[in-house]
């Protein structure tokens, strides 16, 4: 196993008792530096994005898969050690760890290129410790090579917010030069919007945050209104990023005939009763988004580099991870929150 010296593990954070963020579900932990297995990388974390999924895990919206798990799955780091079977990365390389960390490779979904639906899929920060720490392990086959020259803080949100937003955009079946509505405008939405705009779409943003509406307009959105407002024209496609089930019928009503609504989140509050004529008739489509494939990640990172995607990030020292989650829960973050070493 090739390696370079790694200092003792800095303080990290684990989910102790899932519950309301105000109750303090995150606890500070100090653990030995992990040793990579044959197919793993040990990353010294340079930055880790704070995703709404981390909040769902901390608050118990998603049931824990194991006790005392370290969250965080938008990980940018330097390779500090590699397992004996790793050939794609060397010590000192910059690499990224993302949400998807393992699939079986043999099921009907994996064989069909739909590994995001693999029943045996595993996830960073849910099935294994993530990046709210000084070091973490990442399976080499699920890691992304990242550019050395880019700031780690701006790279981190690309690894989940960006990838999932990209998959949601594709699931929305947006036609060429189409009209896209985006409901909620946080970390994922502000990146997906830039891809859509670069591809010629007209983008309308619907969100309750005044600061997010300003950001949307600055990035090139044609309009920005309240989450429950009607966009200025019928939509060909829409993406719901806000985890608010009440917005599903609102977004469906805004669709033109044959329009598609994609729901991007892993968790959603209950959807109200839908009226067939108002919400689904005229061949309107309702789709969910489940994780991503590694090809989604490779495709999105290539597009992000090509269009020069702009990441709006708010850095927090690792020691203030609970505050970052608190601010995310209260919608006080414009763009993405990112943890960096103290």
UniProtKB/TrEMBL annotation:
Pfam families: ADH_N. Its EC number is 1.1.1.1. GO terms for cellular component: cytoplasm. Residues 19-339 form the Enoyl reductase (ER) domain. Signal peptide: none annotated. InterPro entries: ADH-like_N (IPR013154), ADH_Zn_CS (IPR002328), ADH_Zn_typ-2 (IPR014187), ER (IPR020843), GroES-like_sf (IPR011032), NAD(P)-bd_dom_sf (IPR036291). Gene3D superfamilies: Medium-chain alcohol dehydrogenases, catalytic domain, NAD(P)-binding Rossmann-like Domain. Keywords: Metal-binding, NAD, Oxidoreductase, Zinc. GO terms for molecular function: alcohol dehydrogenase (NAD+) activity; zinc ion binding. Its cofactor is Zn(2+). It catalyses: a secondary alcohol + NAD(+) = a ketone + NADH + H(+); a primary alcohol + NAD(+) = an aldehyde + NADH + H(+). SUPFAM superfamilies: GroES-like (SSF50129), NAD(P)-binding Rossmann-fold domains (SSF51735). Belongs to the zinc-containing alcohol dehydrogenase family. This is Probable alcohol dehydrogenase AdhA. It comes from Streptomyces kasugaensis.
């Amino acid at each position: 196993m090739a390696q370079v010296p790694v200092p003792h593990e800095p303080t990290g954070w684990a989910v102790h008792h899932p519950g309301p963020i105000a109750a303090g579900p995150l606890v500070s932990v100090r653990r030995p530096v992990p040793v990579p297995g044959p197919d793993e990388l040990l990353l010294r974390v340079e930055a880790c994005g704070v995703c709404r999924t981390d909040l769902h895990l901390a608050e118990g919206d998603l049931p824990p898969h194991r006790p005392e798990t370290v969250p965080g799955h938008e990980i940018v780091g330097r390779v500090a050690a590699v397992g004996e079977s790793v050939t794609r990365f060397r010590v000192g390389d910059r690499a990224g760890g993302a949400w998807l960390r393992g699939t079986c490779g043999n099921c009907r979904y994996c064989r069909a290129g739909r590994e995001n639906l693999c029943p045996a899929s595993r996830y960073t920060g849910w099935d294994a410790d993530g990046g709210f720490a000084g070091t973490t392990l990442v399976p080499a086959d699920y890691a992304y090579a990242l550019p050395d020259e880019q700031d780690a803080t701006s790279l981190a949100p690309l690894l989940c917010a960006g990838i999932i937003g990209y998959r949601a955009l594709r699931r929305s079946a947006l036609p060429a030069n189409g009209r896209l509505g985006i409901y909620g405008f946080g970390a994922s939405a502000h990146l997906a919007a830039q891809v859509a705009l670069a591809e010629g779409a007209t983008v309308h943003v619907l969100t309750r945050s005044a600061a997010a509406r300003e950001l949307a307009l600055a990035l090139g959105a044609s309009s920005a209104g309240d989450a429950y407002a009607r966009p200025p024209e019928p939509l060909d496609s829409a993406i719901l990023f806000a985890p608010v089930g009440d917005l599903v019928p609102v977004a469906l009503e805004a669709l033109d005939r044959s329009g598609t609504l994609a729901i991007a989140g892993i968790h959603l509050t209950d959807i109200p009763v839908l009226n067939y004529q108002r919400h689904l008739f005229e061949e309107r489509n309702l789709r969910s988004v489940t994780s991503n494939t590694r090809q989604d990640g490779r495709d999105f990172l290539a597009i992000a580099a090509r269009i020069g995607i702009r990441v709006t990030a708010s850095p927090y020292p690792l020691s203030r991870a609970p505050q970052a989650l608190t601010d995310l829960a209260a919608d006080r973050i414009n763009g993405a929150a990112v943890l960096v070493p103290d």
